[in-house]
Specification:
The structure holds three protein chains of three kinds. Chain A is mainly α. Helix content of chain A is 77%, strand content 0%. Chain A contains three helices and no strands. The longest helix of chain A has 33 residues. Chain B is an all-alpha fold. Chain B has a two-stranded antiparallel sheet. In chain B, helix 7 runs antiparallel to helix 9. The longest helix of chain B is centred in the C-terminal third of the chain and has 42 residues. Chain B starts with a helix and ends with a helix. Classes of the chains: A mainly alpha, B mainly alpha, C mainly alpha. Chains A and C meet through helix 1, helix 2 and helix 3 of A and helix 1, helix 2, helix 3, helix 4 and helix 5 of C.
Chain lengths: 102, 647, 187
């Protein structure tokens, strides 16, 4: 038994699916953004997996660099998204995305 | 100690390497600044103590660097880089690399030592001088920043790094001059200094761009061998030299970019001392000394240096003779000295010019510090209201006398030796114009400095309302200590051990430029001229000889600085004002309008109308993801079929 | 140090394999927990735990810098942002979400997505390339080859920070206050 490309890619896919579920199913804006974070991280893990198991150790740095850039972009997007969620809360007193509006 | 250093290994990454010590010397003021900003910004005493301790440590490093350089005179220093940027894949040798680091060769070591030592003494002085003021911590922070910026300029190893530190020097000059920002003259003088320094930075940026464009290289040491290689024609080299010269002229107050220097007298005395002796005013001269390889291959550039330096020197002294403000008079003599340094570099007296930079720093700093004490005690800045201090402030009087003698070039004080070396080179060249200019500058310089001394210390203290001369006290404590150290340096800093290993001029050499031999004629001429100038100054000003009526208009014109200021203001009003109105129109009607349009469109999109408002978000999301899954499945099935059919 | 010209191999040493399996399973479990928990605060806690487990995964297969960055920066920043927002808006104690129909539908869609991805992963033979050059240090590569990307990233992060700060402070800015005062408050 070994840990190779398929295992890590499967983990990444699972995380991505979990993130998708969070985005669809949860109402709170905070949790939806959390779901998008999961999806980003899943992408990062996939890059790392390919860099380590697919392209050879000499090229691992490219995958890691993309992973860092993607992760940092995810955090930036989280910041902006949460700021907008705060504004929604100020308007409607609720964090629910699809509350009935008058 | 010297034998220990003689056994030291060479190379940037070994211990005892001068480059490592130079890095410490560079980073210690910055570290002090950060420590003060982070931890001790509320306490004056602790901040001042930290500042002085770190500067002292930096000074020890600088001294060690100089000692190592003296012990290994023939060793070509390699720079140490602590950061490298390069484009393209790693390992490709043809890519452009931009190293950031320090280069600690004799030139950098000498000037760096001057910078740190002046900074330390100025800080010692300032602890006592600014004791009762607000903003003391801010002053020390700016002093540390200025020291760091100047050290960075001295230790730069590429044009680009020099540009960065030039910008920092500009900012630090602005902050130093505008320290008493509540005064309107101080802020306008600071703004003027900033603008002119920024012009110099722009010129240096243009130089960097052009040099990179032609040579694809920005490192000083690498470029030094490439200038004469024939890759760039003499016109191209001259253009590069002109751009570098403009940058240096803006920083070193060469006519006509000198208008910021008198305004720098608005800075507090310790700040002015730093700026003029080892601060931004010598940045320009240092830039020329560092890039001398470029000027050496372009004789036209050397001629430009010499002419500009000569004009600045003579004009500066003529103006200095007619100034009524004590600090401005000293400032104009600085302008003259900087012009003299440039003249020295222009006629090929490389070591002598750099040595002049070194020897001139001490008397100039001492002059400003003494002026600070005098102004504080007399509560006036005008020379017409001073006088008769010899009886009351004897100690300061002696110190100022030493400073004046050292600045004038009277043997055996410091600048005598360097001026002697410059004149020797001029004599060796046989150029009558240079000889005449140097002699005239020495004469007038001595006269101007003696004028200052005579007007302040001899005669009768002018009677003024609400000012009691009995309350004048002499300087004491730390102020006296700092000034005395500067006086000692003014006396001994010039000694050239002829034909010994410690000859400073032999230390700072430029390959291809022969060392000037000291002609005895040069020494005698300088000594005689300086003493004669001092005597004339004493005769005229100690007796308070009235200016004859025929010279009154000359006096007014000279006092106004030949109306250069008014010319600048006129030009600015004619050219800059319409341009700035045009750009304001563009900004209001185009840029702001575009931004408003974007913001309004976003606001419009955020309030959906009609059917868009009825959409449920989660339904959308479900549809989106389900659609993606469906599309993916269909694509895979179809692709499998297509590949199966093809394969 | 990998030999130049060698193909990358999967990890075969038993303890490491067991560790990786454990980390992966825990990671997925805590992610599931974080999306299924109804209390928002616990969900964010589970999210932080997932991020830490991702960092552990990086420790085994990625350069060390990535592990450190993930752990120290991304985890803490994300968690802090989420918790901070929660505090500012609904409060930390009272957040419970009702179980709704969309959970089932969402679960179905997510399961379909997962199935699709697993099928693709399992049936593709991924290209494997040999090691071509000695690995340069990751930090050195970041500042040399990817220096432009690094600069852009700094700009992105700075503008995100500035933008979100401004968004949050918008009602308190002078121009907004004047507009409200002129219009008269509607609430």
């Amino acid at each position: 038994m070994n840990a190779g490309l398929n295992l890590i890619l499967a983990a990444s896919a699972a995380l991505f699916a979990v993130g998708a579920f969070a985005v669809i199913a949860r109402r709170s804006a905070v949790l939806m953004l959390m779901g998008t974070q999961f999806m980003f991280i899943a992408g990062c893990i996939a890059f790392i997996a390919f860099a380590r198991f697919g392209l050879g150790a000499g090229n691992a740095t490219s995958g890691a660099a993309v992973a860092i850039f993607a992760g940092a972009t995810a955090v930036a997007e989280l910041a902006v998204g949460l700021a907008m969620a705060a504004l929604i809360y100020r308007e409607h007193r609720s964090l629910a995305i699809d509350a009935d509006r008058g | 100690m010297l034998s220990l250093l003689a056994a030291a290994p060479k190379g940037p990454l070994d211990t005892w390497s001068p480059t490592l010590l130079a890095q410490f010397a560079l980073l210690l003021p910055l570290a002090a600044l950060l420590v003060i900003l982070a931890f001790t910004i509320d306490s004056r005493r602790v901040s001042a103590a930290i500042s002085i301790i770190f500067t002292l440590a930096s000074l020890i490093c600088a001294l060690l660097v100089v000692a190592i350089e003296v012990a290994h005179p023939l060793h070509l220093e390699r720079p140490a880089t602590f950061l490298q940027f390069f484009t393209g894949q790693s390992g490709a040798a043809s890519e452009f690399t931009l190293p950031w680091g320090v280069l600690a060769d004799p030139l950098a070591a000498t000037v760096g030592l001057a910078v740190v030592l002046v900074s330390l003494l100025v800080q010692l002085y300032a602890v006592s001088f600014m004791r009762r003021e607000d903003g003391v911590v801010r002053f020390f922070c700016v002093l540390l920043f200025a020291t760091f910026a100047m050290l960075g300029v001295t230790l730069s190893l590429s044009y680009f790094e020099m540009l960065l530190f030039f910008g920092m020097v500009t900012v630090s000059t602005y902050l130093l001059i505008a320290h008493w920002w509540q005064r309107e003259e101080a802020t306008s003088a600071a703004t003027r200094a900033f603008i002119i320094s920024a012009i110099g930075d722009l010129a240096l940026l243009a130089a960097v761009a052009y040099i990179y464009f032609r040579f694809s290289e920005l490192n000083f040491q690498t470029l030094a061998g490439q200038y004469s290689g024939g890759r760039v024609g003499s016109n191209g080299l001259f253009i590069m030299a002109i751009l570098v010269f403009i940058a240096a002229a803006a920083k070193s107050a060469i006519f006509p970019l000198h208008v910021w220097l008198p305004g720098s007298a608005q800075a507090p005395a310790p700040a002015a001392a730093l700026i003029h002796s080892a601060g931004s005013a010598v940045c320009g001269v240092y830039l020329i000394a560092r890039t001398y390889a470029l000027f050496h291959v372009s004789p036209r550039a050397l001629a430009l240096l010499a002419i500009a330096g000569a004009v600045s020197a003579v004009l500066g002294l003529l103006w200095a003779l007619f100034q009524d403000n004590l600090k401005r008079a000293i400032a104009y003599t600085t302008m003259a000295e900087l012009g003299l340094m440039l003249l020295a570099l222009g006629i090929g007296a490389y070591g002598a010019g750099v040595f002049e930079l070194f020897t001139h720093a001490w008397p100039k700093a001492l002059l400003f510090l003494a002026a600070g004490v005098i102004i504080r005690e007399l509560r006036t800045e005008r020379l017409a209201e001073m006088g008769g201090l010899w009886g009351r402030m004897r100690f300061t009087g002696w110190l100022m006398l030493i400073a004046v003698a050292a600045g004038a070039g009277i043997p055996p004080f410091s600048t005598f030796w360097s001026k002697d070396a410059i004149l020797s080179k001029a004599l060796a060249l046989g150029s009558p114009l240079a000889i005449v200019v140097i002699v005239a500058v020495t004469f007038l310089g001595a006269m101007a400095l003696l004028r200052i001394f005579a007007l302040v210390f001899t005669g009768e203290t002018a009677r003024r309302r609400r000012f009691d001369p009995e309350r004048i006290r002499d300087a004491g404590g730390r102020i006296a200590f700092a000034m005395s150290l500067l006086a000692i340096l003014s006396i001994i800093a010039g000694f050239r051990g002829f034909k010994l290993r410690t000859d400073p001029i032999a230390l700072v050499t430029f390959p291809g430029v022969p060392l000037p031999n000291s002609h005895y004629t040069a020494a005698v001429v300088i000594a005689v001229t300086a003493v004669a100038g001092a005597a004339v100054g004493w005769l005229v000003y100690a007796r308070r000889l009235a200016v004859p009526a025929a010279l009154q208009p000359v006096r007014r014109v000279m006092g106004e600085g030949l109306y250069v200021d008014r010319a600048y203001r006129l030009g600015t009003g004619l050219v800059l004002l319409p341009v700035s109105r045009a750009t304001e129109w563009v900004e209001t009607h185009l840029v702001d309008a575009a931004l408003d349009l974007i913001a309004d469109s976003v606001a419009f999109a955020g309030q959906p109308r009609g059917w868009l408002a009825q959409v449920r978000v989660r339904q959308l999301l479900i549809g989106l993801f389900a659609g993606v899954v469906a599309l993916g499945a269909i694509t895979i099935v179809l692709a499998g079929r297509i590949i199966g059919k093809a394969g | 140090m990998p030999l130049i010209g060698a193909l990358p191999q999967p990890i075969t040493s038993a303890p490491l394999v067991i560790l990786i399996y454990a980390v992966v399973l825990l990671m997925v479990a805590s992610a599931l927990a974080s999306v299924l928990l109804r209390n928002t605060l616990y969900a964010i806690g589970a999210f932080a735990a997932t991020m830490v487990l991702v960092a552990l995964l990086y420790l085994t297969i990625a350069p060390f810098l990535l592990f450190a960055a993930q752990l120290l920066v991304f985890t803490t920043v994300s968690a802090a942002l989420l918790v901070g927002l929660l505090r500012q808006t609904a409060g930390l104690e009272s957040t419970q979400e009702p179980f709704s129909r969309e959970w089932i539908v969402g679960g179905a869609v997510a399961a379909a997505l997962l199935a699709l991805l697993i099928v693709v992963i399992a049936t593709t033979s991924w290209p494997i390339r040999a090691t071509t050059s000695a690995a340069a240090g990751f930090g050195a590569t970041l500042t040399n080859t990817y220096v432009v990307g690094l600069a852009v990233l700094v700009v992105i992060l700075a503008s995100a920070a500035l933008g979100s700060g401004l968004l949050l402070a918008a009602p308190t800015l002078p121009s907004a206050r004047e507009r409200d005062r002129a219009r008269g408050s509607r609430r």
